[in-house]
Design goal:
mainly alpha; two-stranded antiparallel sheet; 2 strands; binds iron/sulfur cluster
């Protein structure tokens, strides 16, 4: 189940990356990354995956998880970034690319189902 979820986040990252690569070409790298988004990833990863990423969190950097080759985190450690594109954020769909859009929402639904199943399992263990 967890492996499947990690694989789905990777798939989603591969799916959204081409959109952002185009942006990187025009606006320059890191155009929508922010310190607060990195902090959310740090918190999410600690709470959800029980992994402490403070050793690679550069608190003095403008974008603490950004490395020379892009984000240093696996896609499942930063879901709010992995799922994000400008069109999805602004409109909830990509009007210029319906094929891409359909695939995005299929993947997103699969991730949702796996996330909820993981959550239920975690709740069960906490009882
Ligand atoms: S989400 Fe938008 S602003 Fe951010 S990198 Fe992708 S295309 Fe650029
Ligand atoms: S993609 Fe990585 S570097 Fe950018 S905001 Fe998210 S966690 Fe930070």
């Amino acid at each position: 189940m967890t492996d499947k979820l990690i694989a789905k986040y990777q798939e989603m990252s591969d799916h959204t990356k081409p959109k952002c690569d185009k942006c990187f070409a025009s606006l320059g790298p890191n155009s929508c990354c922010s310190k607060i988004a990195c902090e959310i990833s740090l918190e999410w990863t600690r709470e959800k995956w029980d992994v402490d990423l403070r050793y690679i969190f550069d608190k003095d950097a403008k974008i603490p998880f950004m490395g020379p080759n892009g984000c240093k985190l696996h896609p499942h450690f930063r879901p709010h970034c992995t799922l994000y594109t400008c069109a999805i954020h602004a409109f909830g769909f990509d009007k210029n690319d319906p094929t891409w859009d359909k695939e995005y929402w299929i993947l997103r639904e699969e991730i949702n189902i796996l996330e909820w199943a993981n959550y239920d399992k975690h709740e069960e263990q906490m009882k």
